[in-house]
Specification:
The complex is a heterodimer of chains A (about 350) and B (about 450). Chain A has about 350 residues and is mainly α. Chain A contains 13 helices and two strands. Chain B has 20 helices and two strands. The chains are: A mainly alpha (about 350), B mainly alpha (about 450).
Chain lengths: ~350, ~450
Amino acid sequence: MTYLLQQTILYTVPLMIVALAGVFSERSGIINIALEGLMVIGAFIGVYFVRRIILLNAPLSFGQPLLLLGMLISIIGGCLFSLLLGFAAIKLKANQTIAGSALNLLAPALVLFLILLITSQSVLNIDSRYSSNDYFMLNQEDFGLGTKLENPLGVIGNVLFNKTYITTWICLALYIGLSIILYKTKFGLRLRSCGENPQAADSLGINVYKMRYAGVLISGGLAGLGGFVYSVTTVAASSNGDVAGFGFLALAVMIFGNWKPKNIAAAALLFGLLKCIAVGYPYIDINNDGIYFLNTIGISQHIYRILPYMITLVVLAFTSKKSRAPKAEGIPYDKGER
Amino acid sequence: MAKTLDKVKSFFKSIGRWFKSLVCTIDGREAKLLTIYHKPATKSIISSLISIFVGILLGGLILLIISITSGGKISLKAVWEGFRLIFIGVFNTGRDTNGNITFGFNSTNIGNVLFRATPLILTGLSVAVAFKTGLFNIGAPGQYLMGTAVTFIVALSIPTTIVPAWIVWILSFVAGFLAGALWGVIPGVFKAFLNVHEVITCIMTNWIAANIVTSLFDNNKGIFKHLLDPSPTKNLAYLYKTTENGVVTSKMGLDVLFPGSQVNGGIIIAIVIAIIVYIILNKTTFGYELKACGSNRHAAKYAGINEKRSIILSMAIAGGLAGMSAALYYLSGNTEFYWSTYQSLPANGFNGIPIALLAYNNPVGVIFSGIFMSYLNVAGLQLKNLTPFNEYITDIIIASIVYLSAFSLAFKEILNGNFFKRKKNKLFLENSQENSTKPKIIKEEESK
């Protein structure tokens, strides 16, 4: 049970944050199909930064502060890369899907090119000296809660304080904070209006271009962060020009969640759970009785792997009538049009 | 004698007039070169060429930056060599005794360019056909994978001792086509009847296909695990090549033209298919219906076109083309298929997107952009072998070219001479109308 919850959270958090990235961009009216590419870039920049700092033996080259710096850098990297999308889609009124696909092609190519030059391998690790899998992991001892054998709070305590990452809690805070900004502030309202009816927004004195740039930049930052978080928590802080389709999955989560943060959180949780089952079903012990139920019923692993995608298809088929994309999404804003 | 002289004179005069008419206005008619220049197709080609040129320059710039920041590890000479290799790497013939890169006719490389272009042209067509109907077929990798699996199953399962090999070849080719088409129909149906965006269904079906194919050939429980190659070097990680059953694409004499390369008749088949697709799209009612749906689904419906049928058929054709791409690639007999593919999707499928975009979705243009793409790929391999750089630089270049081609609107306006005018005079709306005839990929009215 503990394992199931822990792993589910690890898969859910990047999905959530990247889906929110998609929301910010699309609600301002720019289709962001480049989430995957942004994640790849964010993961690479974050990992590369952490690696450089460790190799330089610079101050702060340890544990959590370094991780925080890495997160910041990956946000900046994502922002910069998303400017390419913003420039093409907003300034040059290019086709947003094409520009986004181009970034999806560019990101892995650029990252692999650089990684091969840096390490002459196809994977970039933070440092060979650390078995990096748990380098950034927080255990009970870090919270002063005794050794691993004691279980001060049972399952929930384990999930909260054992084998956890600081990134998880920061991302959750960011998610809630940004959702509030999107719905409860002037800025959020203006941003959303640009995705629904930019002409009307403009007539009320809102600078549509600025709002869309803001949407794309926030989107890029969040997606970059999501990529780095994914890399730290699930692939031992390495970067190989690939995030296993998480960016596209986040896109699905976003559509699934109907472009609304609350629904997206639920959808991401569902996906995280399915993803966790697909990867770790032989180790999942739901009621702690030592029997790995999912492993014993003898369903092929491929079925578990197909499940998240299959369920998305089925649910999309049933909910498509209710699905409501931002109205002006994908249409370049032209002041002369009314 | 004088008569013949006159004839010759008038002949030369007419040639002169023709050349003059190319560049000058005669009898009130516009100069022919200008007429050609004013055609939209020419402008598309020119803006594609600009994208390609700028993209390659960008690649050179990246090499230069890396050389400068490497602190002397990578010399400027290597950059210059790398840059030349990107342009004409296919004509590279290795290094001479002084260590200088030499260039000349290299039949192996040119043949390999054609060989690699075969699947690329077909997946490019797949994406292009869907684009013409206003659909973004990002599902080509999944359709390609289904085509791969079914082609292999048919090609390896029917014993050639009973059925002649060429019949098996045709059967597996058709089976690959059908498998891809079926897989393409799924997003089509979702789009037509349920109005689910095709991008999302395509992504889902991609990963479902990847998992299904993996489970089919799983070396533990898969139904078709007897098709895996148990030899020690392959160790069940790959399927048998189709040559195991004697099923292989005819070389059609191309191996004589390009000795030492992997080229086969597949490239000819691909080009023929591209031309057929061109004819269907541009010369038939059916093609017109598809394009009408792409321009405006609702207007097409109003005009009496069955838009649902058009969407589904378009996706079926797109999927079928991707399936054929896989069939041609693997029936060549010198390619292997790594079955455990549930974590990665085939690059051949995704590369269809840039190829179609570069060709402005014109099926004939796809032939050239497909060959260009594989040209760059082969050049990238030369770069990897001969310089400190690696082959991913060509992927960067391709991505930049696609990114630049998204600016086609801006490029075309520069070519039309309106780009700078518009800033001064915002009433210049007629020209922006002309540009909007290109089908918009995602139309928002549909999501209501």
